[in-house]
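I have a small job for you when you get a moment. Would you make up a two-line entry for one protein for me to read? No commentary is needed, just the two lines. Write everything out right here, beneath this request.
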Amino acid sequence: MRVELHGGPRDGWVVPVDRDDPDPWTAIISDYGRYPGGRSLYSPDTGGTWRWIRDLRPDEM
């Protein structure tokens, strides 16, 4: 399934996610976030919209 990301450095991107994943989130490599070379973390809210949570340092993955 493909979802659109909202907020954060990857706002508007459409990315594939696994709808059957029991821990639904995605961390996308991002040089535009707070930590260049890190990742931007997105997760669905209660309405199903995928929202930016925070940026992760490269060593957090």
